[in-house]
Design goal:
Layout lengths: L2 H4 L12 E7 L6 E6 L4 E3 L22 H7 L7 E3 L5 E2 L6 E7 L6 H6 L2 E5 L8 H15 L1
Parallel strand pairs: 1-6
Antiparallel strand pairs: 1-2, 1-3, 2-7, 4-6, 5-6
């Protein structure tokens, strides 16, 4: 899996900061959708966590450090997001982990995603993404549904 492919859709300078795959699972039907912005399902947090170099040998990135920026992107309170304690994967030796983040809302914020330039896609719709992102979503889907 090529790390450059996975992070291709990230804003410039976000490669070393906090990144996550955001999903919403409906509580009764278990229908699961993922936030896609541009050509990527890997979303970078727009906050101070992105300025930290996590692999300088001294510090790491806490899983929750990007939730405020991600919540702001979708006009949600940070409490509306839950992050897994284990990253989905790391994208290369010099890159930060990619976290799995659940939207703990009744419905996905479709309008807010559209304002941010994104949309929610099902796993079937994600088949149009590149191979690395499809593999990442496969790992996420397996973890979500157990």
């Amino acid at each position: 899996m090529n790390a450059d492919t996975v992070i291709a859709g990230l804003p410039a300078g976000a490669e070393g900061g906090w990144r996550g795959v955001l999903y919403h699972k409906h509580h009764t039907s278990a229908r699961t959708v993922f936030l896609q912005i541009g050509d990527s399902v890997v979303v970078a947090a727009a906050d101070d966590a992105a300025a930290i170099d996590p692999h300088d040998g001294r510090i790491g990135i806490h899983p929750a450090s990007g939730l405020v920026g991600l919540a702001g992107l979708l006009a949600l309170p940070p409490s509306a997001l839950r992050v897994d304690a284990e990253p989905l994967r790391t994208a290369g030796d010099a890159a930060a982990p990619i976290w799995l983040v659940e939207l703990a809302t009744i419905d996905p914020p479709v309008a807010a995603a559209a304002v941010a330039g994104g949309r929610f896609v099902s796993l079937l719709e994600a088949r149009l993404l590149d191979e690395a992102q499809r593999a990442l979503l496969g790992t996420a889907y397996t973890r979500i549904l157990g």
